[in-house]
Amino acid sequence: MSIIEQVRKNVYDGDENNTVELVKKALDEGKTAKEILDDGLVAGLRDCGDGFEKGEKFIPEMLMSSESMKKAMEVLKPLLLEGSGGGITGRAVLATVEGDVHDIGLELVGTMLETAGFEVRNMGPDVPTEDIVEAVKEDKPHIVGLSALLSNTMDIMPDVIKALADAGLRDSLKVMVGGAPVTREWVQRIEADGYSEDAIGAVKVALELMGAE
Amino acid sequence: MTYYMYSNTQEVTPYERMMASLNGEKTDRVPVNFYPRWAALEYVGATFKQAWDDPDIYVKAQILAQERFQYDCIIDYDMMGPVEEAIGAKLKYPENDVPQIAEPLIKTKEDMKRAKWKLDPRKDGNMPKVLYAIRRLKEELIKRGRGTQHVPIMTWGSCPSRTAACLTGFKEWFLIVARDPDWAVELMELALDGWLQMVIAAWEAGVDCVWVNDPVSARDCISRDHYEKLTQPYERKFIEAIRKETGMNVTMHPCGNWHDRMDLVYQNQADCYFLGPMDIELCTQKAVETNEKGLSRVKALNGNVGAATKSTTDGQTAVPYATTMKRGKPEDIEKESKVVIDTVEAADLRCILGTNCWDVKGSSFANRDAMVYAARKYGQYK
Fold first, then answer.
1. Å between B297 CA and nearest CA of chain A
2. pTM of the entire predicted model
3. What's the ipTM?
4. What single DSSP character describes residue A39?
5. How far apart are CA A156 and CA A164, in angstroms?
6. CATH ID of B2-378, from 3.40.50.720, 3.20.20.210, 3.40.50.170, 3.30.750.24
């Protein structure tokens, strides 16, 4: 098994104690930070996401994979920022919409996006629409992620999208939505750009949306 | 109000109907219990915070809404918070939602010393307020029932895994499950007693039955293996302790999708299971199987007209979950209700008609009426 494959498997296994050592070994063997990130860490996290979809991995295991990746990123981030292999993946502003105090899913999505190299501003639960618009003006994110657990608060999502459009910000970013009552039909109806049923899927969607820009 | 009071004087009372079903017995028809927090508050036009600040508003809401909608069970405050707050957690109180943990109390093992694990529900924190509301509900029900109680009161208890997760924060809880199962066990062991004492005190104050729930051990959260070895033993311990101390019928709500572990859930020995967004046929079949093997004592299934979406299940569901209570029409409620009644009663279990989680905020009165109507139309035993 190549060193990159070992890094990938290590993230999949969520073995946080060995990640740093393996990443350092990969660098010693001449692998670039970008290669280790893309083919090792992100690939491992994707494998974990596939495992989640198949019912082989669950939230604790997913979080352990995420922790492994975070530790690896402590080593890789300075190298990536040096310009040798790239920079941050993108910026994201996340919020649970106003009136909805649930944030477990939002937390998980934030963690997963951070570990995938995003700079994340997690505004937490029950965020007024105007605050989201202000945060977008300040951070100029590539992605805005909106969450709602309740079927009555998901009605706020189109209001946020409209407020972003009214502020002239809609075309500069992609809007992702998620939460238990959210469906693909809902995403189409409110003209959001992406949707995921879970946190790992959200990373995939965010990366796809970034690529689509 | 006179018109609505009429059916509270009918031959079989909601109390008799509900308690019989929890014991696996039949009366005149299938009862309805959809955990009517929002129905009650919306009916009197109060926010949750108003009703929390003034328990008499909550009592009025519960009493008047039951008279209006004619469901068969009312609830006390029925929420996470009073016990966790008394243990030491800081809560925030949104204007119109139940309290939430503002800051996790336990971030390290050292923090466990800051927690107050031995609680007195009659003195500590806001627990006495909940007990006051229960006593007032009881008084009002007896007064309106002309000396006899005509509607049962249900209270709520948090399973130890949920309480532990509230104290540590959900993300941290799942990391503890992965990294340090022994710590998870220690937390659940300590967390069990606070809610047990609260349920006992609620029973002494006048509640008639209890439901407990666990949203952190679903298939959406942890593996079957973690469930079986870590959290399920504490669910069972909690339920058996409640029964031993109070003798009340216990309903358990496995919140979320538990399709791959219903056989284990039923072994928690609850009398009734309030089903989440799951396949009613599969849940009914599993209940019959575990009962036949002598592993469970399931007498009734409560639920599970759609309040969530198909995306929260693994796609096995036979019931079309499309946020029905919130977005569906009365005929959708009737149609789904019929499926649930027919499926559960065909297995000779008692059906208690309800949603698949708490009553959905903002559901139309017509949809809530439709569920009671469906119980009358399709749930007659004679």
1. 29
2. 0.85
3. 0.88
4. I
5. 13
6. 3.20.20.210
